[in-house]
Structures are given as structure tokens and as C-alpha cells.
Amino acid sequence: MSGMGKSIGLGSLTWNNLRNRPYRNIATMLCFAFIAGSLISAHFLVGGATNSLHSGLSRIGADLLVVPREYSATAEAVILKGQPSTFVFDSSHLEEVARIQGVDRAAPQLYIQTLSASCCSIPVQLIAYDPARDFTITPWLESRLGGPLAKDEIIIGSRIIGNVGETLLFYGHEFTIAGRLEPTGMGLDSSVFLRMEDAAVMAEESRTKAAEAISLPANQISSVLIMVDPDSDPSEVAARIQATIPDVRVIAPNYLIMKVTDQLEATTHLLYLATISVTLIALPLIAVISSMVASERRRDIGVLRALGASRPFIFRLIFLESISLAVIGGLIGIFTSFVIIFSFQDLIAASLQIPFLWPSPEELLVATGMALLLAITVGGVSSLYPAYRSSMLEPYEAIRRGEI
Amino acid sequence: MMVATGLVKRFTIGSTEVLAVDGVDLDIKKGDFDLITGVEGSGKSTLLGMLGGLTPPSEGNILLQGQNIWTLSGTRRAHLRATEISLIFSFSGLLPTLTVLENVMFPSVFAGTMVHIDKKAHRLLQLVGLSGKEDLGPDCLSPDEGIRASIARALINDPSIILADDPVRDLDPEKVTGIMEIFATIHREGKTIVLASRTTELESFAQRVMRMERGKLSEQIA
To answer: Cα–Cα distance between B16 and A266 in angstroms, integer?
Structure first.
């Protein structure tokens, strides 16, 4: 649709009409921005939390986790948020658990909180595991490093500062970084994995090398990771463990997902409610604004019809203006939400007490598409009637009334 | 070229029926310059509205080159307005968001004749004395310049007939002559023009003068 450089047509007329009413259009676009922004924020939070949980729990690689009953909340905080902690129960529970019907494998872990470390300005969580029984870290080591950890080697979470081959000091003991785990958004990201025998040496040496010694009583562990027999139901196995050993608490990954979902419920409900409320308010509001604009332009519409514009052209003009505002406003809302959540993801995760892992590009694309689709739907639906009414105007009447 | 027979237009305002056009017969020949005079409310605009395909007659027929324009579909009639019938109003009717040049070019979108249209638009703007004002917005034009631009726009698709509804109504007397000279030039180039006006002072420009009174049209000798 061009002559010699000048472009005219429905698109250029729409664009010029939008530019001509900046303030009202900005207000309308803000409505669309809020609709798209609140929807995508809710999506991000739920998606980011579940993404993190699935990633983190699959990294943990256990069907069930047994912890001391009185420390179950602490254990959850270690797993979900990486709040460092030291807690133990008697290692005899390991054998008790291993004997329970349906338990295929059971592996002990010992959680040790550091006071300070060369890597980090805040305490980190040391997780000591038993290479002989472990079934979660060892497969990862074999696939990534080609074998088990050597003496004084450690695996660090994604948030621990340090490169492979460098050394870190914990309680005066020097460890070499052998590998780094992928981000999970959970407590694992600020954890350090080491062999139990190295942890024992570290504790022993801490009396002479560390500013403050650590005592690791013999025959004590913090948790038992369980792989359930493929023919057994994890929830039945959990119930059996709970019934057999009353002073422990069995944590199932599904329970953690439910717990985080519950924690998020109020916030996501609020965001979804805001989206619905704004949508419900925006629909008639934008319809009224569109009607006002169409009414103000009655004479222009009449002139366009007199110049040869058909009814469908007028309908498309009004409709396209509204859709354009919806697309621009929606993209602004989506982009703003991206920037806010990306910039403040740690703060948001901490204040909502949830783990958070940035969703994958595919998930982002789907969420963006959905938010944009909602904005476009609102824009389209709200402009249907004004567009129809404008297109049905009799040109002579439109011109005459527009003159009044 | 255009033949109207038995045209009647009734409006209902509240509970009152108004007879705006009352049995008008009109035969417009190719190359005519017809002037329809009459006071405000005499039915001139309504008559031009019907001839221009903007408002349907309550009774009667309008044939353009043998084709009844009011039996065509809405889309076909819209295309006819884009290609065969051009309307000029007492206001410029320029779209406020487009430049003068874009306004002149715009009807080509409806006629589907956009190729090299800006060259033609430049030429038409020169014809109406608006060279150098192509990139201005309509609000930068004086009232007579607005009318000049609307005349250029009316010519962009090379229509068969131009219907001008009191284009000099709001202009100062010294500007009226300039506008009428443009119409005279267009007419000399072969265009068919029907111009409605309240003033009878334009009679010298027309070949035929008709008077509209209370919806009835009577012919006078020019």
C-alpha cells in the first residue's frame, strides 16, 4: 500500500489514530498492562516454585526422607530454603528403616551448619553422605565426573562461590571443589556435599585448626534418604515407617510440593483475583472508552464511508485500534513483570517463603502467549460493540450528527 | 449520466414526519456543472446525500450510467463512492491524524489504485494551490485551504461525478471566488459537477441553475 515512499492504508491510519490520543491510549494500555502483568506474575510465581521443586526434588533423588520428628520443620527449611542447620538422631534408625517392607535402599546424610567459610559471607549447609550406601549423589558423580569423590573433595551447590579445582576451607579443613550442581532454586543451591569420613576428619581437626570446634557425636545422622521398592506405594511405606519408628518424621516430595503450593496459594489467588477483577472492570471500561472515541469520531467515520470505506473497513479500524492497544499494553505489562520478578526473585522467594527457579524459555513463551492472549481477548471483546455500531452508522447521519 | 426519478426522502423526528425531498426528478449529463440553490433546510444536502449513495431515498430511483445505485450491495455502493462519485462537504472532512498529502491519497485505498498515487496527489495539490503544504496537518490549514485539500482528495480516484454540498458556506467572500475558480477549472477539464449552495451569487459559474424549495426542485435558466 504505497505510492512513492508514502504508506497509506488501514495500518497507517490505525497507527496515526493511536498516536493522536496519547493520554487516553496510555490509560487504556495501562489497563491491558495490568491484566497481562498480573497474570504472568502469578504464572511466574507458581511456575518458578514448581519448577524449582521438581528440579530440586529430582536432584535429591529420594522417594522419601526420614528426619528427627522434632526437627522436621528445620529439615524442610534446609531442603527448601537452604537455611543451614545441624540436627541429628541415632544412626540405629538407618537400619530400622532399611528393614521396613517396601524400602529398597536407605542412605544416611549428616547436616552440618558452618559458622563461616572461605566461600561465603553467610553460613552454608554441609551435607555429608556415605558413598557406600548413597544412591543420590553417587549416580550424579559417575555421570558427570566419571567416578566417586576422592578424599577431601566436595560438590558445591550453584550459589556457592568457587570454581572446580579451587579449594574451600570449612572448620579449618581444606577441601577441593570437584564439581558444581545445576541450579534448583532450593536449599541444595547453597549446600556443599562431602563424604562422611572427610566430615569426621574435619570435625576432629577443628579442635586445633578452627576458631570454633565442631563436635560430631559418633553414630549420629541427620536424615535417611529412601528409595522405595518399585512394587511398593511410597505413601504406604511412609505410613509403615511412621508407625514403626514414632520419633521420626517421613517427608515425601509430594508433601513438599503441596506445602509450597499452599504457601503460594494466598499470593497466587490474590494475583489471579486481581487479574479477574481488572479484566471484569476493564471490559466495560474499555468498551465505554472505545464507544466514546467512536462517538467523537462519528463525522470522520461518516467521511471515510463517503470516501468509499465499506462497513467491514470501519469495523476493522476500530477493532484494530483496540487490539493494537491491547498488544502494546500487554507487552509492556509482561516486560515489566519480567524485569520486576527477575530483579527481585530472591527477595520475592524469601518473602513468600518459597523456592524459586526461573522458568524455562518454553514455559516463559507459553506464559507470555497466554498473558498476551488474555489482553487481546479483552481488547477484542470490549471493542466488538463499538466497532459494530460504528460500522453500522449511516454515513449521511454520521456526517450530519458529527457536525452538530 | 445520472438520472434521478421521483426522489422522496422522509425523516421522522420524534413523532413528526418531515418531508425533506419531495418528488425530485433530475437528469445530470456528462460534463454538466449544475448549481442547486436554496435556503438551509430546503433539502439540498439530503438530495446530494441520496445522489451520493450516503442515505437511501424513501421513494424513487437513482441511476448512474444506467445502474440503480440503491439496489447495489453496501460494499458495492461503497466501491462506487470510491471510484465514481466524489463528495465534498461544507467542512474539509480531512482526517485529523493524517497529513494533507496522506488525506488526498487516502481514497485510493478504497479504489485500489495506490500505485504512484502520491505523484498524482502532489499534482492535485498543485492544482488547488496547496503546493508546499503536503506535510502539514489539517489543523494547520485555513478553512479555504481545507476545502481546497478536500477538492484535491475528491479528484484522486478520477470520479465520474463530483457532488459538492455547500463547500463555500463558511468561507469569507474573497475566498469563495478562489474555490469556485478551482471548480470551474475542473469542469473545463471535463468533470461533471453538482454543487449545492445557499448563495445565488455562484450562478455565473454554473451551466444550469436549479432552485430547491421545501424539498421540491425547480430549474431556472442560467
So the answer is: 62
